[in-house]
Amino acid sequence: MKTSVQAGVAGLLACGTLLTVVLVTRDGDGSHTGVAYSAPAKGPYVALGDSYTAGPGITDPTGTPAGCDRSAGNYPALVAAELGLKGGKFRDVSCSGATTADLTTPQKTDDGTNSPQLKALSSDTRLVTVGIGGNDIGFSSMIKRCVAMGALYRLTGSGKYFTEDAPCEREYVNGDSDKVKQKITTAGDRLTRVLHEVRRRAPEARVYVVSYPAILPSDSADCGREMSLAPGDVTFLREKEQQLNTVLRQRASKAGVGYVDTYTPSADHNACTAKATRWIEPLAPENPAAPVHPNARGERGMADAVLRTIKSAL
Predict the structure, then answer these.
(1) Is 4 noted as a catalytic residue in this protein?
(2) Which of 4, 38, 51, 266 is catalytic?
(3) Which of 101, 98, 105, 95 is nearest to 74 (CA)?
(4) What CATH code is carried by the domain that includes residue 262?
(5) Residue 3 placed within a domain
(6) How many CB atoms lie within 10 A of CB 158?
(7) CA 178 – CA 154 distance, rounded (Å)
(8) Is there a domain that residue 209 lies in?
């Protein structure tokens, strides 16, 4: 069924028409669900973003430069496959470690330089996804810092510094001063400029900002073994991710582009859930993926969220 759907979509995309199809998707537990959606006319599709888009460690890396660690199993590749977009109809220029600045300037990696991602856009582009912002606020380094402090908290459980259950939060929030919130606002401003440039370069494209999936659980006590975080810092980091996603949604709306919510469908598949159901791997991955990044199940879930959003928009 999947092969026939892809062939039918590809044929009608080439004619520039809209097609309502039923595609096979997978729920978070790996089961399949039929999802009807309308495919965007023509293509090409360009995927922009950071490591949550690139999907490092899931399958053998693809594309150049090798230092971007793009996976053939990431959500852009899965979306393109469902839409029947191949060859010149699909370009994935996402790159691990990318910030909003790397969308407009070259990005150096450990193995090659990625061209400014926006260079992939043109007046012919018909679909764009943008997954960016986490590196602008230093979320990865913040998690590493909180993990280190959480490990000490769990080892000592006492002492002047570690009597509170959110030792890391104190590094970033002091009274009315919230360093992370300030960075999120700045990232939102940068995203607004990026989206205006995307619209200028690809005026006929449907553009979607893709949010970040749930990394941590709502119950802060359920994440000690997998992530070595103090309970209060689980709450702190979760709230900061939600604040970032809120700003991404608001800026997308203000720019007149779409927003893909990947957080809601992934809430029960965070890094602290079971190996067989999680979308995000913990510090020590048990499924192929980079630490604290989406695995293949997570990228599939993100792809399904993108496809559902395309359907609802049309």
Answers:
(1) no
(2) 51
(3) 95
(4) 3.40.50.1110
(5) no
(6) 8
(7) 25
(8) yes
Average pLDDT over residues 112-118: 98
229 and 147 Cβ atoms separated by less than 8 Å = yes
**Tens digit of pLDDT for each residue in 45-75?**
999 999 999 999 998 899 999 999 999 999 9
Q: Residue 256 is part of which domain span?
A: 41-313
Looking at 94, 211, 266, 293, which residue is catalytic?
293
Annotated catalytic, 38? no
State which H helix or E strand residue 250 sits in. helix 231-255
pLDDT at 32: 38
Q: Has residue 288 been placed in a domain?
A: yes
What is residue 46's predicted lDDT score, i.e. its pLDDT?
98
Number of domains in the chain: 1
Q: How far is Cα 187 from Cα 207, in angstroms, rounded to an integer?
A: 18
Bridge partners, 218 (sequence order):
none
Residues recorded for the chain: 314
Q: Which single residue is written with the structure tokens 């520039």?
A: 16
Angle of helix 179-201 relative to helix 231-255, nearest 10 degrees, comes to 30
Q: Is residue 16 part of a domain?
A: no
**Residue 31, Ramachandran bin (φ over 0: left; ψ between -120 and 50: alpha; else beta):** beta
**Read out DSSP for 17-62?**
---EEEEEEE-TTS-EEEEEEEPPSS--EEEEESHHHH-TTSSSB-
Q: Over the stretch 192-211, which tens digit does the pLDDT of each residue have? A: 999 999 999 999 999 999 99
